[in-house]
Write a structure and sequence with these properties.
478 residues, Transcription Regulator spoIIAA, Pdz3 Domain, 2-enoyl-CoA Hydratase, Chain A, domain 1, 15 helices
């Protein structure tokens, strides 16, 4: 299936100018059928880290005129209109959204501005997975790469804190530490006054880098809004060239220090770690869900099979392969169970289908706890919810992302960018909506400044203690 060329778009533009609005939809929908799609994950023919071009600082041939740009906008809009799993579009007037972004599309002076307009348009849906991606973003996603400095930030007590540092990253090499307070990045001050003013910042189409939904706990709502304000202040144009950032950090009992970080592509393939503590509690940590390391996960489960209980650490795990979620849940079920309902689009209606999972031959049936935070999304949330409802697992830490939908394909746009649209939604076995509604922990244990600076893991310590208490209770009952 070939991509439609600029000449075809020009011909269609002349038809659109001479046609009514209703015919515009029909013409665009017809052209949509000729647009190719590529897999949502894994290798894609004709697209790699070597072939994906960076965005132009001017308009490329595919976006050279206002008519061409409006046609591309129409295609992106129509893909979502035809394929999004929710015929009600999360309560958003999808036609009004298209009209809202016509002027930014017409006014775009570069490929980057064009993509920013398209990204903002689909962000109005407040759907975690529906997005427009540049060719570079699509290629990086497939090789598990992110252009980053290697730090994870959170807001605690009106302070912007480093809560994690990626090993072998610019931040690690610059000796950035957990518990460092970020006072400023370049010339942007992130002091208490800035963060307090952002406690009620709403999520809008401008937040193209924020996917998580608002949690139920009010203190978490404020913290998420504050972090959103930081992202918005630092947000750059799509595919902007990396540049060094100057961080001003405050450490306990020390003067302020400054470090310069140059983001670089951090490739983080699927990985699993496992160990058993002195108390007999196993800890299994997954950084993503992928069939590529299923054997590694299976071997790790065998190594901890004799543990008294297990902590599944899904913090920072944004999800991954749906089939790996099903496989992992099998390892903990005592019998066949309906674990969720899948939601699909059928024309203007929505259909539902239950998902029943059968257990593995030798499942782990001892007490469970799952560690989550705001970065736990998609397959991580499906797993945590299934284990909570089916195994009475403890959920410890912070609320999840609320990002629980599935993308089947990436629909190719002119210029090799793409539209990733949520074509499957989910409802838990107990009827809980999952997309847009973060899973709240049964035991709330966010990191604290004192724990971070002492090198302690509050959520893990809390989970281990809760599991030991549950083991004692089970022994007493017996």
């Amino acid at each position: 299936m070939r991509m439609v060329g600029p000449r075809t778009y020009g011909a269609l533009a002349r038809v659109l100018r001479a046609s009514s609005f209703a015919l515009t939809l029909i013409a665009a929908s017809s052209a949509l059928a000729s647009l190719p799609a590529r897999p949502a994950g894994g290798p894609a023919a004709g697209l790699s880290e070597h072939t994906a071009r960076s965005l132009q600082h001017e308009l490329s041939a595919e976006f050279a005129t206002a008519d061409l740009r409006l046609e591309v906008q129409q295609r992106a809009w129509q893909i979502v209109a035809d394929r999004h799993y929710d015929p009600g579009f999360n309560g958003v007037d999808w036609q009004a959204v298209r009209e809202k972004y016509r002027l930014p599309v017409i006014a775009a002076k570069s490929d980057a501005e064009m993509y920013l307009a398209l990204k903002s348009m689909v962000r109005e849906l407040k759907d975690s997975h529906t997005r427009v991606v540049t060719p570079r973003e699509s290629a990086d996603h497939r090789r598990f790469a992110t252009l980053a400095s290697g730090i994870s930030l959170s807001v605690i007590d009106d302070q912007l804190l480093v809560i994690d540092v990626d090993p072998d990253s610019p931040a690690a090499r610059a000796d950035v530490r957990k518990g460092d307070v970020v006072v400023a990045i370049d010339n942007r001050q992130f002091d208490a006054a800035f963060l307090r003013s952002a406690r009620d910042l709403p999520l809008t189409g401008a937040d193209v880098t924020s996917s998580e939904a608002e949690p139920a706990r009010q203190d978490e709502v404020s913290r998420f809004a504050q972090l959103r304000a930081v992202r918005r202040a630092l947000q750059r144009m799509p595919d902007a060239l990396p540049r060094a950032q100057l961080l001003t950090l405050q450490r306990d009992g020390e003067d302020q220090v400054t470090v310069t970080l140059m983001p670089e592509p951090l490739v983080r393939p699927p990985a699993v770690t496992a160990h058993v503590s002195d108390t007999g509690i196993a800890v299994l940590k997954l950084n993503r869900f992928s069939v590529r390391n299923r054997n590694d996960v299976e071997q790790a489960l065998r190594r901890v099979a004799d543990a008294r209980a297990l902590v599944l650490d899904l913090r920072g795990n944004g999800g991954g392969d749906y089939s790996q979620f099903m496989w992992l849940v099998r390892q903990f079920l005592p019998e066949p169970r309906v674990v969720l309902t899948q939601l699909f689009r059928r024309g203007d209606e929505q259909s539902a289908r239950e998902l029943r999972i059968t257990p593995a031959e030798t499942p782990f049936l001892k007490p469970l706890a799952v560690l989550t935070d705001r970065r736990s999304g998609s397959a991580s949330e499906l797993t945590a919810t299934a284990l909570l409802e089916q195994r009475d697992a403890l959920i410890v830490g912070e609320s999840t992302c609320g990002c629980v939908v599935a993308v089947r394909s990436e629909y190719v746009l002119p210029g090799a960018g793409g539209v990733r649209v949520s074509e499957t939604g989910f409802r838990s076995a107990q009827g809980r909506r999952m997309e847009g509604e973060p899973l709240a922990p049964t035991i709330y244990a966010p990191p604290t400044l004192a724990h971070l600076r002492a090198g302690r893991d509050r959520a893990l310590e809390t989970a281990e203690k809760a599991l030991l208490d549950r083991l004692l209770l089970d022994t007493a009952v017996q």
